[in-house]
Amino acid sequence: MKLSNMVGIHILSTGSAVPAININNQTLSKIVNTSDEWISARTGIKERKLLPEDQSIIDLSKLAALEALQRALLTPEELDLIILATSSQNDLFGSASQLQHAIGASKAVAFDITAACSGFIISLITASQFIQTGSYKNILVVGADILSRWVDWSDRSTCILFGDGAGAAIIQNSYKNDLLSFKLNTKGSQADQLSILYKTTKNNISKHTSIPLVHGHYEYVKMNGKEVYKFAVSQVPESIQECLKQAKLCISDLTWVILHQANQRILDAVADKLCIPQSKIISNISRYGNTSAASIPIALHEVFKQGKICNGDIIVIAGFGAGLTWGTTIIQWNSLE
Question: Any idea which residues are catalytic in this one (predicted)?
C-alpha cells in the first residue's frame, strides 16, 4: 500500500540492547551434537547472546527504549503510544504495560503485537497508521524476543538458530514522509511450519466432575526448515518488488536492504533473486543469530549508529516468519535538520 502524504512519518531515532552472555558455536557443540563448521555452513551464525536467568524481556526492552529516547532527545512522558512486538512476553496478557511502567511513560497507551519475526514491520506500519490519523505524535516501537528460553537444547536444528535481543525506534509525525510504501501478508494455511504450540492435558480434578477441566503448557519451537526457506525465498522478493512498484522505484534506487536475520543463506538467495549487490545487504546474523522481532531494529540501529545511513537514502526493510507472515516497507531516510 502506498502511504498518504497528508501526515508524514519520521523515524526519529533508534536503540538496541543484547545480553552480555555470548555463546559461540564451539560452546554450543559441547551441549548438542554439532560443530562450528556445520552451523556456519548452514546458517552463517557464529555466536548468539543469551539473557541471564534473573533478567526478563522487560530488562532488554527498557535498555533499547531508553537509548532510542535519549537519541531522540525525548522524555518518556512525551510518548503517546508504546507498541511491543514480541512472541516471548513476560505475561500471557502482554508485556507492553510492564515496559511502559519500567521506563516511566505514564501518559502512553501500551500494547503488544505478536507476529514473530514480522512483528517489528507490522508494528511500524501500525504506528504509522496512528500517526496518519492524527491520533498520536510520538510512538515507541520495540521489537524484542528471548526465544532461547523456548528452544529444545537437544534439538540441533533449532537451538543453534536463536539468540536474545531488543531493538527500538521512535516514530514521530513530520512534514516529511519516511515511509514510501508497504505490503503485509499472512498465510495461515502454513502456520504449522513454524510454531510454539500449546498442549493441553486433563486436570486431575476432572475425574470428580463431568466438566472438561484442562490445563497445559507451551511446547518448544518447532520448525520445518526447508519449507520456511522456500517460503522466504519465494515471497520476500515478490513483496519487495511490489513495494518498489508502489513507490515508483527500481532495484537500482536502493541504498540498503535490511532483511530479518533468519539465515545467511536466505539473505543471499533473496539478494541473488533480485540482483541486489551483496554490498547493499545488511547482515549481522553471524554475531547475534536469529533474534526474531528484534533482528530488524537491531540491524537498523547498527547502520544508523555507524553513520552508514545518509539523508535521502532509500532503504527496504522486510520481515518474515511464523504465521506464516511477511511484510515489507520502503523508507527514504530524511534528516529534519
Answer: 117, 260, 290
